[in-house]
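hi! just following up on the protien thing from before. the input was this:
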Amino acid sequence: MPIQFAQKVSQSCLGINLNCASRHDSFVDRWTLRQTYDLAAITSSQPLELHRCEQATGQQATPGWPFAELGQVDPQAPPARRLEQLAELLTKQENGWLSRNLVNLLWARLLGRGLVHPVDALRLPPWNEDLLDVLAADLVDAG
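and the predicted 3d structure came back as:
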């Protein structure tokens, strides 16, 4: 299911919880219903209609990545190519979301609590920003 894909990718790779934004624009975060469906549409081989609180909106999702400053997927490309493009965006060195999230998850696993807590709320400030940045940079440098 495309929406579950968007939720899982955002949570496991970006430290972002899109559960609320998969039903409506989030009340507690900046993520929108449109962003969630556009991310979900990356895997869809057919048009994906937005549903707000389980009601069809009549709008179609456009396969897309929520961080345009890092690049974008080609909405006209086949789903397999869009997935490759998403993987390239996720692992792009300029994408600090992935490295910061991985460091936060490792820290939480090893020490019982993340530098950012809860771990799926990377938008929140870490208890030590400098430590998270240094560890994330070290992770990227180590390949």
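The beta strands are 49-52, 55-60.
The chain has a mean pLDDT of 91.
cheers
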